[in-house]
Amino acid sequence: MDLLPDTVLIFERDEDLLVFESYIHATNWIEAIDVDEGEYTAAYSPGGGVLTLTAPEGPEGSVVLSRTGSVDMGDLERRVAIYWHRHQTGQPPRDPLQTARFLIGRDNQPRRGWLSRVTDLLRRDRAGDE
Fold first, then answer.
1. How far apart are CA 109 and CA 90, in angstroms?
2. Helices 73-87, 96-107: inter-axial angle, 10-degree rounding
3. pTM of the model
4. How far apart are CA 108 and CA 94, in angstroms?
5. Does 56 score more than 90 pLDDT?
6. DSSP 36-87
7. Less Cβ crowding at N or C end of the chain, within 10 Å?
8. CA dist., res. 71 & res. 50, Å (int)
9. Rounded distance, CA 62 to CA 65, Å?
10. CA-based end-to-end distance of the chain
11. What is the largest CA-CA distance in the chain?
12. Are 25 and 104 in contact (CB under 8 A)?
């Protein structure tokens, strides 16, 4: 899967990671109150470009995501490694590009409802009894 040029990796206070396909997706999803309260600790492009998140109109306004012109691949790689260690236990760590692809792919999977999951479990259980 090729990433769009405006793919964004945003790290939360708890070192969780959000990946968005574009600046527009990111700013439509993120709430200004969370930016205002410091919920997000860093934002990057997959190539290590440092981005800033601001809420210039305050907690009730819109969110602005901007390029800074700086690159810090070392910090991005460190944060991605921490994410894998804390939130993807048992999975081998991946680099920032692989991580962005993984999370976008995972989040774009169709979600199965609880009834489908229960039906599958019952089918497996029944097949095991035979």
1. 21
2. 50
3. 0.78
4. 19
5. yes
6. HTT-EEEEE-TT-EEEEEE-TT-TTS--EEEEEEEE-HHHHHHHHHHHHHHH
7. C
8. 5
9. 10
10. 41
11. 64
12. no
